[in-house]
Amino acid sequence: MAAASSPRASASGASRAPRADAVRNREKLLEAARNAYAVASEGGPEATLEGIARAAGVGIGTLYRHFPDREALVEAVYAAELDAIVAAAAGLAASEPPERALRAWFGRYGEFVAAKRGMAGTLRSAFDAGRLAPSTTRARVTEAVAVLLEAGAKAGALRTDVRADDVTALLLGVFLSAGPRGEQTPRLLDLLVDAVRVRG
After folding, report:
1. Closest CA to 67 of 77, 54, 81, 57
2. What is the pLDDT of residue 12?
3. Got the DSSP string for the chain?
4. Counted domains in the chain
5. Which of 10, 29, 131, 157 is the most buried (most CB within 10 A)?
6. Could you give the C-alpha distances from 167 to 16, 84, 107, 138, in angstroms and in order?
7. What's residue 16's pLDDT?
8. CATH number at residue 84
9. What is the mean pLDDT of each run of 10 residues along the chain (200 residues)?
């Protein structure tokens, strides 16, 4: 005769799977926070936890249930954005022509940079404390660039002699010098795509 499962085991099993509305609220909070920090990076109003909760359509108590403090929220936004830009590379490589995919991904990376600038102070503390590692971020960005370059090279549209880490260095240079929303940024990103394009 099979042993009956204990109430404690059942309760712990149930607690492992978050409710659908809790997952939705967390995603809405992350999206609202990303937008708020991106706006703040461009000289807009400071991103406050109350404002983020309001933009997500939830109460401040719900925000604190998911993220006990600003540091936890910022680190979660940063991690989610990094995951999203890495995942976007494969999707764009599969759905768009190589040059267009690369340019679209550069634009998506710019959104990540804008959000990151708005969180700069809190992120610096996380880096200093060792909770986040800039080297890991750069390695993952370079991996995403490599996916796009390899797809373009296979299609005969992008050069085979360009290294992904070189493109990452140039991309960082664009955003450091011109900023994610700078007037020169679109033109510089177009020039970067042109630099890795196969000449006819």
Report:
1. 77
2. 44
3. -PPPPPHHHHHHHHHHS--HHHHHHHHHHHHHHHHHHHHHHTT-----HHHHHHHHTS-HHHHHHH-SSHHHHHHHHHHHHHHHHHHHHHHHHHHS-HHHHHHHHHHHHHHHHHHHHHTHHHHHHHHHTTSS-HHHHHHHHHHHHHHHHHHHHHTTSB-SS--HHHHHHHHHHHHHHH-TT-TTHHHHHHHHHHHHBPP-
4. 1
5. 29
6. 41, 19, 14, 11
7. 59
8. 1.10.357.10
9. 44 59 94 90 87 96 95 92 95 97 96 86 82 86 97 96 96 87 90 93
Whether 74 is in a domain gets the answer yes
Residues in contact with 119: Cβ distance below 8 Å, sequence separation at least 6, in sequence order: 37, 47, 74, 77, 78
Residue 4, token pair as written in the block: 């009956």
Domain limits at 85? 70-196
Residue 152 lies in a domain: yes
